[in-house]
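Worked Example 4.2. Read the sequence first, then its structure tokens.
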Amino acid sequence: MPESTLSLTRDDLLAEIGDYLGIGRDTDAWEGDDPARVESCLKTGLRWVYFPTTAGGPVHDWRFLQVPDVINLEADQVDYDLPDDFGSLVGDLYHRTSDRAICFVPVRGEALILARRGQLSQPSGRPQLAATRPKATQGVVGQREELLIWPTPDRGYSLNYTYRILPQALDAVRQYPYGGAKHAELFKAAVIAAAEEMQDDAKGVRFQGFMQILVASIAQDAASSPDNLGYNGDRSDRRTWRSERHSETSVVTYDGFR
């Protein structure tokens, strides 16, 4: 990152918390349990930003936490590990054929994939259905997820997809929170509000200020989301689209691609 960036780093946020708690901005001068208390405020503030909620549940799905990725399928392999920070899929997967057709792979429930795999006749070919499921864990590392594909790939395929990130904690190496400079003031307000709650054992004026900035940041994030073009077709192929949508890969034509 260039030094001129307006983004805030972990060190910047720690200094803001220390300043509010009255222990100073110099992290090297903190004593006793100061570092642990500040780190707790940092993690709380980050969670408030990344996963904003109300009594009714989640209030926003951040666009900056949705990133594209590619997973390379191999012949005869049906299960694939997803990234360590994988949260959930955003929409369906897709791949391009040799003639540039875009083939969507609908995401369905795990039970459907397993039922298809349990059939006596097992086809192989291009991916037609996908599902995700959590992997078993012994608690040594965080739980991961895997991607299930049906039918068994007959060759290699590159599947494109978008997923929601589960952000990892900031540390000495991983300094920058997601969101960039556009949301820097939101993160600053969040960690100070968390420090207020720790110090006063209650949410007060700083938390109210954080919520006001949160509303503005959500509006900005929503405004930057691209329009959803949806399916571009006429009514004549409606039956075919429905049939493919529920059974196998769909091919969509737009912008010169078949």
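Now turn to a second chain, presented in exactly the same format:
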Amino acid sequence: MMNRREALQLLATGAALQLAPIKALAAMREARAILSQQAATTPRTLNAHQNAAVKAMAEMMLPRTDTPGAADVGATEFIDLMLTEWCEPAERTLFLSGLADVDAQSQKLFGQDFVNCNPDQQGTILEALGDQMTEHVERARNEVLPEAVPEGGRNFYSMFRWLTLTAYYTSEQGATQALHFEIIPDRHDACVEVTSDQQGLQPQ
């Protein structure tokens, strides 16, 4: 059995995804069960406005289609939990400052906060954040940056994406419906072709 610290480490690093499917799903279930025992029903790091912004951004990244969306798997609650109990103070500050900057950019472009923008406007802002993240990565190739817990943690949007994707793919819905983990395979297929929906899993 894992303790709470081990569960946090497992989910935060995405280590469970490197295990065999059945073992991975079992480990993720155990980790999330441990965390849910003490998880608060209301956000502990994010205030109401920040929580709404994170939820809107996560839903833009991973909307509900024929598979569950970010909200369906509790991505916002997961992010708040990780910010509260796993991230270092500097990383938490980086994340919250990044959220404030999202609203600043939204106010500059559209005269209102991100959560009040329409989907097209929100998409424009996320696209700009993605461009900034790419520039950050390119600069980092020629610089020695301190290690950050979430990969690319010195950039808000890369940290946000990392936490959102970790929340999604370590959830039972994300693991079984998006990654196609089989809890009890009904047959053994020695050699099968990868289907189109299993290739290049990318957030929308």
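Notes for the reader: Residues 147-153, 178-188 have pLDDT under 50 and may be disordered. Residues 89-110 form the longest helix (22 residues).
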